[in-house]
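Hi support team,

I've been running sequence recovery on a batch of backbones for a student project. Most finish fine, but this one hangs at about 90% for roughly twenty minutes before it completes. I'm not sure whether the input is malformed or the queue is just slow. I've pasted the structure tokens below so you can try to reproduce it. Let me know if you need the job ID as well.

Thanks,
M.K.
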């Protein structure tokens, strides 16, 4: 989906006067609105679903970065060794 951000630029005074309508627009269309103050972009209003997906994506990227750091530092183990250890622990707990 392509979003033309230039079409969704509103002044802070417009937002103040039309907050409910702007929020409905953002929610229904899933398009962000750039909010300007004194002609300068200051904030972006996005719907809650997009915000949550963005946060989830950043969290996943952070996990990947941590994993890459572990690989570089050679803090890894072979998968079959890890699974064997987990099976043994589960068997002990089942007893």
């Amino acid at each position: 989906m392509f979003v033309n951000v230039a079409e969704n630029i509103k002044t802070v005074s417009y937002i103040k006067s039309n907050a409910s309508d702007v929020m409905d627009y953002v929610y229904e269309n899933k398009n962000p609105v750039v909010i300007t103050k004194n002609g300068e972009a200051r904030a972006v209003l996005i719907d809650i679903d997009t915000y949550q997906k963005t946060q989830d994506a950043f969290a996943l990227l952070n996990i990947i970065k941590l994993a890459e750091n572990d690989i570089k530092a050679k803090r890894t183990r072979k998968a079959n060794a890890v699974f064997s250890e987990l099976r043994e622990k589960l068997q002990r707990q089942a007893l």
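--
Follow-up from support: It reproduced on our side and the slowdown came from queue contention, not your input. The chain has a mean pLDDT of 94. No action needed from you.
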